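note to self: the first set is below, dont mix up w the second
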Amino acid sequence: MSGDSQRWERIAREFDDLAELAPARRESRLRELVAEDPDLAAEVRALLVADDRAEGLLDQSLDELVPELAPWETPAGLRLGAYRLVEPLGQGGMGEVWLAERADGEYRQRVAVKLLKRGIDTQAVLRRFLQERSILARLNHPSIVRLLDGGMSLDGRPWYAMEHVDGETITRWAARRALALGERVDLLAQVADAVAYAHAQLVVHRDLKPGNILVDAEGAPHLLDFGIAKLLEDTGDHTVTATGVRVLSPAYAAPEQILGEPVGTATDVYALGVLAYELFTGRLPHRRQSRDPALLAGDLDQPLERASTVVGRLAPAEIAALYGEGHDRRRLGRSLSGDLDVIVAKALQRVPERRYATAAAFADDLRRWRSGRVIAARPDSSSYRLRTFVRRHRWGVAAASGLLLALLAGFGTALWQADRARQQAQRAELVKQFVLSLFREQDPVARAQAQARTPGELVAEGIERARRELVDDPRLRLDVLADLGTLPAALGDPALSEQVLAQVLEERRRLDGENALATARVKSALGGLMIGRGNPDDIRRMLTTALDTITRVSGQDSLDAARTQTLLARLGTMTGDREDAMRLAKQAHATMLDLRGADHPETLEVLSMIATMHEFLDQLDDAAATWRKVIAGVERSLGEEHARMVVPLANLGTITRSRQDYPEAAALYARAVAIARKRLGSGHPMLGGALLRQGDVLRRMGDFEGAAAAFDEAEPCVASVPAQRAQLEMFRAAMYSAQRRHQEAVDAYELAHGLFLGTGGADSAFPWLAELGRAEELATLGRCDEAGEVLETARERLVNITGVDSYEVASAAGLLGRVRREQGRLEEALQLGQHHVEALERIYGSDHPNTSDARFDFARSQLAAGLHAEARANIDRVIADFRPGSSTEKIAADLHIESARLALIAGDNERYLRDAAKARELIARLPNPDQRQLEELAQLNRSGLPSGRD
């Protein structure tokens, strides 16, 4: 695009923005333009002057139309009904718009009031003004300004009050906030929804442009100004206003408007296309240099340049002004090319019949692009028909259809690297035969055996077929094997996937070299499969070298780079390198958001990784909010009962559980388990993971029978997944502990420790968390020296892995402090206990049950050290912060025993009797009273009762 063209587009945009502003605001903006570009400001001012002098009733100013009335300006403070005018906001051909406020004292409210101009109250204009008011009255949509009130002024002019939107035009709002491409598509889809709603009410706006679409501070768009809107049912003539004057904004007008031909809903679709083009590129699709319809008609045959091509030529400064710093025009161009280019081009068709039939169809295609689905505007093709056929039969062959879609996606990627015609023909034949075999498996007459083979068996056959039939074309053979090789793991056979991908990687190295992009992609896929099953250092090296190659060849903002960064982030969660994992996950999410959209499964997967990182970094509020975003995204794009709901529901349940809101956590786990059973079937590892967490929260709620049942159902699901098998033993150990089966708990924690070491190695936090549990049980059994040694080692490891201020290290400090107290090493116990309390206060807050539990343990050390006043203050604080149903309830009896002990020391007879009685009451409620607690109470009684006791 030439510099002159770009300059004209800037002039046109500024003119459209300024044309409807009140004079004071217009002059203010013109002064800003003068400071930026005096020549440009002069051209805009000249256009404005010419526009003020234009012929046509609705385009004339009041001064020209009725000179004798010009001095009679509408005054600020004028009362109209319940409202008082405050300041002018702008003016159109027939009305002036004011900011007004409620003046009747009923309540405070600010509105926008539109008032017919003086002197132009002809029957035609009056009818048009009242029709606009009528149109607004029939529209009730969150993205269309609502009519609030109306009436006649004292001088006989009609007026109406509508919502006041404090916002910016949609294009300025998007630029100021540097919205990503996907976010712009979402915003535009909301606008199209509002237009579609108006069309459903038989209203065509006819003047859609940025100035008539304001976005508020929350990001919600609002459609304004129905001043020239057309009611489709009022006549059979869908052409112009009743005055015979065509009112249009040249840059956004559809060809039929310019030519005076009939207008309809397709007119608004065209304007939406112009708006999309401008939002995506910062440019207008056509250069229209006049407001005269006769001259504009000559511009209608200009060819439309693709939006992706325009973006690809923008200067870095222009990209930064449009999308913010850090965006690359090539990446944006790639994102726009293809479907988005098609969507915009279809909306901007010269002939109305070739555009989208409705604004709703336009919005639907935008959302299809966002979710990675096939758009309706795409031309028909054999591959399109095949995908449609598969979707039509998805319920009859659900597993086969899911597999088919995965294969098509993989084959599509590999086709790009195939050797054009011959390779495409071979691959097409392979796809066809494979798809046919999937459907033949559902037909008992056509298949060769009594029972249909499983998807896993079909994939295994496909792998063998590729090995046999593609030997003459090594690269094509490796492409297909790499695609197929990722599928067995998803179907429960990770060993086969690793075997196939390891073979492909070896052959890729020989064929293309170590530093080839194709080799890097296989490294990335294989490394991802090995996470949790191999040596973390080896996996990290494999993924890092893959990422280096991908970044060098494809760029750091490519999909391949984002996918590999996600795998490295997942590995970091297991090895404790959390800060770097968060950095990688955020980089990957930014790329996915831009290239895939917010609700695409890959984007949601990376967002899930970020939520996990927040959890590991003890940022629980951020983690919960991020998991809720993931859940909402899956619900929007895939449905409320999709299998992808299982993990985010279970993880949100874990955060809720950590806040000790056990009923809500139990409800989240129950929903996750129900979906997993329905969508994944018994025996699936994801079902096992949800059952593990459900069992743990049931254990915390005291339902040991329910917890044991959940663990038993989970065991076969996680038998082949060492990390989850280890977690099962951790949860069982906690249940054994709650049941006072302490030696069984020690054994279970030791088994979990060994499983975690085999899964993530010694540099993972999980083996050492299992050791914390084992040490606590050893201490309970009186084996304090052994417990202390275990805790010293675990604490040192966790400091190196998670940092000195982490929750894990704080827990280790609390447990070690308890052991040191039992060993009589009170100075160490006090230091460790204080660290424990301070860390949990920072993580959870000062009144959280976890903090209260730590505070009570610290008070016990203070009591043992003779710091009676300090111990009393902490125990009273715990009692004051007590929450029924929380973990503190489990130590409530001990809490009142120690409070009674302090009262005995202080000689507070009344407090002693009250606390001892409360402790006895709490112990008596237990189905199996703790004999240790009863003995401690008896010892207190023997140590010297206060006088006056019965």
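second set (the one i keep forgetting abt)
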Amino acid sequence: MKKTTEKINARTVITAHANADFDALAAMVAASKLYPEAVLIFPGSQETNLRNFFIESTTYLFNFKAFKDIEPDSVELLVVVDTRQKSRIPHVRPVLDNPNLRVHLYDHHPDSDEDLTAEKVVVRTWGSTTTILVHEIMERGLALNQEEATLLGIGIYEDTGSFGFNTTTPEDFTAAGFLKSQGMDIEVITDLLSHELSAEQVTYLGELFKNAKTYDIHGVDVVITEMSTDKFVPDFALLIHKFMDMEKIKVVFALGRMADRIHVVARSKNPDVNVGRICASMGGGGHEAAASVTVKDRTLAEVRDDLFALFYSQINPQIVVDNLMSRPPVVIEDDKCMSDAVELMTRYGLKDVPVVAKDGMRCVGIISHVTADKAISHHLGDVPLSEYMTRKFETVETKTDLYRVMEIVLSNRQRMLPVEDNGELVGVITRTDLVNMLIEEPARIPDSLMPDSRRERNIASQVKNRLPQRMIDLLKEAGELADQLGCEAYAVGGFVRDILLGRPNLDLDLVVEGDGIDFAKKFASRVGGRVKAHSKFKTAVVILDDDQRVDVATARLEYYEYPAALPTVELSSIKMDLYRRDFTVNALALRINPGRYGQLVDFFGAERDIRNKTIRVLHSLSFVEDPTRILRAIRFERRFDFQIGGQTMRLIKNALSLKLFSKLSGTRVMHELQLIMNEEDPLSCMLRMQELGIMEAIHPLLKLTQERIQILTELVKVHNWYKLLYLEPKIVPWKLYILGMTAGVKRDQTTQVTKRLHFTPKEEREFLQLRDMIGEALMKLMGWKEGKSKLSRLYSILHPIPVEGILFLMARSRKEYIRRNISQYLARLRSMAVDVNGKDLMDMGIKPGPVFGQILDKLMVAKIDGRVETREDQLKLAKRLNKELSEDPADTTEA
């Protein structure tokens, strides 16, 4: 009787596409590190060396099973790597019918119409899927053994052509570097991926050489070759690699008739030829450098004809800059001023003009009409062009091809492209020139450079993984309301930025392309909240029952009537609304309407700047319009460990040279300082401000001397220590740090600082009193000696002082025993209370009055000094004190 094998219950299953390559196999093993309880289902492969490698080693090292060995109904989570297409995972199709099945996808291929719907989708256009998973492993701090690291390395090496394909990215190199640190054996990888060909394979390779023909497709050399046999040829893709390497071929399409099927393997090292798109048009798949397709019921000639039809429609003609550029260029010399630029551009109807060195035609910058106009409106017409021109720009030569032009103009969003020969400006290409040419043939634009597709990446999975459900519900509720009202709504700014950074941020800002105040009222009625509207700015705040606040704004364009002015508001679109933001990293929007929920709107390269850790302003006059943005730039730079970009730093220095801080109100400066002092590391912000001369620009008395820096350093330490104690009252950080910033400033001079920062009369009075109390306490502390002075004396010195002043004393003291005892006061004595209250005193027959306070104070002193431990002892002392005070009311000595 045949024995029935019991099937395995597998709650989590990992698999890849059928006919797996090394990247698929390696990605499965990498995924198993992220899902350690998962069962791996190998989908099979037609590649001989891969199949042998798998059979000989991998099954013994990892938890691989055959699909027939598991119970399909037990699968709750399906993890698919190196594909998202349903048709490419037929071996696990029964699992897809499971109710409530969750799906996670990791892939590096382009989107397709049959992509699976999943709760988690991680897609990166990197050289391999294994790279994506290795970065996840790195982020989680997981370790690999040598066998794992080597296998993962094989996946990356294969799919990047040992880092020789144009699709290879910096992330692939980073992943390989990490794997090497984990023990990856490169010799094993080299041996595996460079097997000697068998005699039969050499015969097939000779047939491919014999049948190879080169065709000129729009100026691009494309090689087509073919072979024919009645049986399947393993490692066909390997033969094509050998063929390309031996002939130094850039683009090849190899057709192999094997029995009743035609196998097409395509490889491209030319960015103008996207083989993935061509093969996808025939029902196959891959990416722009490597792809394949299998065709049934067609002849070699028919498949070849289909390819030629696709070639002529999808391969870009080799148009070069010389055919596109405008010449001679209209230029302006770098010693001219902003008003000269406006006059020149108005005369010729230009949006931008190249700036050249006055001694020749060397291009040194670009100035835009918008920037020059704004400069005139701010009365900066006499300022030299060199102050506000864009210095960071790309140039091309006359023989540069169309793809590079599109990459700069469309992808990098440089509206005007100077053309140089031998370092001399000979012409320009404008965005209009390029668009006019592409209108006639839009298919020339590669998908990777389409502006819409780049800025509309969907990050719904990141939103789901990084936000609490309550916040997701609010986003979807707002999106549904916007749909009902017939308008578009977006989450914007730092909220979106921090989703990409993976940082917590529950400060939700919404922008509506419609009436923001009306939207806020309707939204509040749906979610249960109240509205505070600001008609002047067309904004509103929805305050929910749990004190969650949702800011709602009308899509608007802000403009400034003069430098450092408050903004005037006009209705506008989301693009213009984002353009008014301070920095690119904050100029992000997230669509929340149901049809396009989760799509990221990025007009200004925010994702790129986040990736490069760069703080960059949106336009040259940003700091002229609002100098407080300088303080924000420093705050974000230090918070995120970014760097202020070179052009942005130059503009900061320009704004400081114009003394724009003097035009700012103290209220606005103080608001930004308070935000800085609420940061985790306020000192690094203050040091950066000092380095740039901002402290003195706010007020000369705020210059950070070495002594003040030392005090501020200690203040940060004691502040962090106090926060860890979770004591009341909470610190008001600005009071603490402005004490440090004004250390050593005389009392009458301190009022100059408080008035510059626009303290209210109450704030000024309390701050000056606090400084006075600190000064008196410092004198008294000098006379307090550990072991000789009573602890109650320390208590009486410190107790009247607000907690900010006590922390300042702790930071300022150079005697360790005083710091130690101040910390004891904060941690224990400050919250200590006697066990006797006013009612107890009344029960003794003591009449309420000043004597109550005197008795309770003396009881506290006695308790601190350890003379009365129990309530009974305190009641006895209270009676005695009452008697003594009654006999001599003027007595105020310690009991």
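remember for set 2: DSSP finds 37 helices and 30 strands in the chain.
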